Amino acid sequence: MKNAPEKPADLSAQIASQIRDAIIAGDLIVDARLPSESELADQFDVSRPTVREALKRLAAQSLIRTQRGASGGAFVNRISFEDAYQQQITTSTLLLSMNAVDFDTACEARFALERACVTLACARRTADHLATMRAETHRQQQPGLTDEAFCASDVTFHRALVDAADNPVLSHQLAGAVEGMQPLMNMITFTSRDRARIVTLHKALADALDAQDARTCDDLLAELQAYSCALAAEFMAARK
């Protein structure tokens, strides 16, 4: 790790970045203990509160963990897909909610990624995946189901399709698209969408996945994308 510049705009961010780079490069291995706050302060020529803030940044990214006691300190964490999963959801939600990504772009990415799962999902789906999808389509037809509950069911349905691909990298990438962007996309379209139409498409998707018909799955997801974008366009036009 190199010493931080003497007068950076944000020392803690730069220190965190340098430690993160050392972890990624393998200079700091999993479970390695970082130098103490005093040692890091001397190394970077900064105050201990600045080092403490840098460590908080790294802990927030699940890159390190802290332990108390005589054998305590800051240690390089063994990050898992589960840890990264929630971060992906949070980041994607913020990007869309802050208008950093427009609806059509988010919709395009979300369905392109899901369609990338289809071939693997058709080959690897289990009875549990299919049961989850069919249970959600049944739930979506219940009278009196709130918009929030319908949205949650929609996410669970598509999450099962993604998980059927049995690929943790794809699941991680789609965490933000399905569980981060999908709820906000639902909030935009729920007032004018036809639940029956969506349920029909969901039933057909489950049947196509059961039949291992990847082409039909792809076509159905493309139809869902077109319908979502059309609803969003109507919503935006009504607000003008």
Q: What is the CATH H-level superfamily of the largest domain?
A: GntR ligand-binding domain-like
Given the structure, what is the number of helices? 10
Order of helices and strands: HHHEEHHHHHHH
Shape: elongated
- Could you say what the CATH architecture of the largest domain is? Up-down Bundle
Separation of the first and last Cα atoms: 53 Å
CATH topology of the largest domain: Four Helix Bundle (Hemerythrin (Met), subunit A)
Largest sheet: 2 strands, antiparallel
**How many strand segments?**
2
Structural class, judged by helices and strands? mainly alpha
Arrangement of strands in the largest sheet:
1-2
Overall residue-averaged pLDDT value: 83
Radius of gyration: 23 Å
Indicate how many domains the architecture comprises.
2
Describe the model.
The chain has 240 residues and is mainly alpha-helical. The protein folds into two domains: 11-76, Arc Repressor Mutant, subunit A (Orthogonal Bundle), CATH 1.10.10; 81-239, GntR ligand-binding domain-like (Four Helix Bundle (Hemerythrin (Met), subunit A), Up-down Bundle). Helices cover 71% and strands 3% of the residues. The protein is built from ten helices and two strands; from the N terminus they run αααββααααααα. The chain has helices spanning 11-25, 37-44, 48-60, 81-97, 103-124, 127-140, 147-163, 168-189, 195-210, 214-239, and strands spanning 64-67, 73-76. It has a two-stranded antiparallel sheet. Strand 1 and strand 2 (73-76) form a beta hairpin.
